[in-house]
């Protein structure tokens, strides 16, 4: 009987200590600390709708979808085809049929891209022209992303 009383007393004491510990108020000098970070947004490069790739190079483009500020189009460039200077907003490019494409950025040196089937890229806003300098037809799936600009 005395053992039952001791066990009961110990369990009761543990229970009381647990309740006291859970209900204890934080000390006044223990204030919540919040990390206040400065939020910075980068200014997006400007985008000129008059230089939209589908408008400028309409002969090479087939619009597949245009909704929710996203335009999906297929670009087909036969050997020797050139596209005039145009501006993409942020965009992705996926190679359906590969080939050799020479890109002429508005501000920069020309670049030759050896596009292989399945290659994909993600680019920021860019103004450029291009030419298929290879011997094969190039097909690209391009997604232009029109998001608000400051």
In brief:
It contains 2 helices and 9 strands. It has 150 residues and is an alpha+beta fold. The protein has a 5-stranded antiparallel sheet, with no helix packed on it. The chain has a 4-stranded antiparallel sheet with strand order 3-8-5-6, with no helix packed on it.
Explain the overall architecture.
With 150 residues, the protein is of the alpha+beta class. The protein has a domain at 49-145: Sandwich (Jelly Rolls). Helix content is 17%, strand content 41%. The protein contains 2 helices and 9 strands, in the order H-H-E-E-E-E-E-E-E-E-E. A hairpin with a 2-residue loop joins strand 1 and strand 2. The longest helix has 22 residues, at 2-23. The radius of gyration is 32 Å and the shape is elongated. The mean pLDDT is 82.
Lay out the secondary structure:
Elements: H1 2-23, H2 53-56, E1 61-67, E2 70-77, E3 82-88, E4 90-97, E5 99-105, E6 111-115, E7 120-123, E8 126-132, E9 138-145
Antiparallel strand pairs: 1-2, 2-9, 3-8, 4-7, 4-9, 5-6, 5-8
